[in-house]
Amino acid sequence: MEERKIGTGKMLRGIVLAILILIAAQLLSLAAGNLFVLLGFPAAVGNVTAGVLYPVCALGAAAALCKWVLGLSLEDCKIRNIHIKPLWCAAGVGMPVFVSAVLILTPGHWEWGNLSSSEIWTAATAAVFFYGMGTGIVEELIFRGVIMSLLEYRFNKITAVVVPSVLFGCLHILGNELDAVSVVQLLIAGSMVGVLFSLVTYESGNIWNSALIHGVWNMVMVGGILQIGDTANEGAVCNYVLETKSVLLTGGDFGVEASVVAVAAYAALAALAGWRCRRNGNS
What is the pTM of this model? Predict the structure, then answer.
């Protein structure tokens, strides 16, 4: 990244507008998906529509923000041509598989959801297109693309890694009813996975590798096809219900994404990304 500096005011405007872009793009895409359902199309069609429209809207708005407000290009914000490294492709698949496998090896039992074939398609398209592709791309576009770059241009890379990661964790508190212990767990887990995504972005030079890891994680752990937790989710295709009540394994009120198993996986891959950054001379 070429050396450049921006002022504090421009940086703050950019961060606020970037978050508003994320919110607006999400609301618009969900509204479009719901419109298709109201017109009589299957819910799966609505999910695909929302999942495709979400990153398209966010990318277009981010391009306008960079050009007209920040005086930057998308390339300046690591939003470049798609280039996926095999290492991070393998890590993207391996992380949710590892975490799921460890949790499934703990005491618990399986419960299968009583879903119709159309409901299974609805869950699958939501997992792949909205939670996976849409959310994975947009959150990386905003947090590791625009916000991280602004903080680096204003301060330095350490600030650029840490601040968006903590902000990423804090924003996940919104809309969730969490006790104090769960809030602490979520902040630790959310910040650590944010550090992972940030370091992968620096190591690879673009947002697409972190978007892949983020998207695959969401598909497996959030999408509702396989639900792992201390209670069953009737909307999931299948559930593995943990018998333990230890918040270290269940992740507390937020769920297993904040469990010690998940945090260990985030930290291990973050350490790998950090080591590769140093090896490649990216201090």
Answer: 0.95
